[in-house]
Specification:
Helix 3 packs parallel to helix 5, helix 5 runs antiparallel to helix 6 and helix 5 packs parallel to helix 7. The chain is globular and about 45 Å long. It contains nine helices and no strands. The chain has 180 residues and is mostly helical.
Length: 180
Amino acid sequence: MVHFALAIARLRLRRVARIAALSICLLASAGCAVQGGDFRNLFGARLFGAGSGFGQAGSGDLARAESLVRAGDLSDAKRIYMARLAESPRDRIARLGVAMIALLEGEHAIAEVWFKALLNEDAADIAALNGLGVTYDQLGRHEEAQQSYAQVLQIDAGNAIALHNLAASQRRAAAQGATR
């Protein structure tokens, strides 16, 4: 009976983590994107910071995939991103999309691999650094998360998303330390 209750609790925690990640994405981006009247960028560009390229796919398959992510249809969006990667394996937007979907699905190890691969090519990739930080935060690895956000802030000192994520990570770390 105890094992069953623990299994249900774990499933609920995973679900809450996924919903929280999506909520953070949407709320953080909504505050910046909707204020400027730019609904097209509601999902990704504001989450990862200006100039990241995410959320700016324009038209075509990548724009459709981003639209599907915003609508919560992660499986169809993932299929589009993967098809794009089959054609163009180095497509940065598609790789960011796959990483973000892995993060939203709670597949932290997969998200970490994708974000790190992007960082191997460009250590100053704000989108990948912020995504890696969120991944680490969801895993409870707050010190590593905070290092990722700090790297973003070294590149872009005013990055609102990194500032928000850093403060939230510090609060979570303090709360986690208080419960031990």
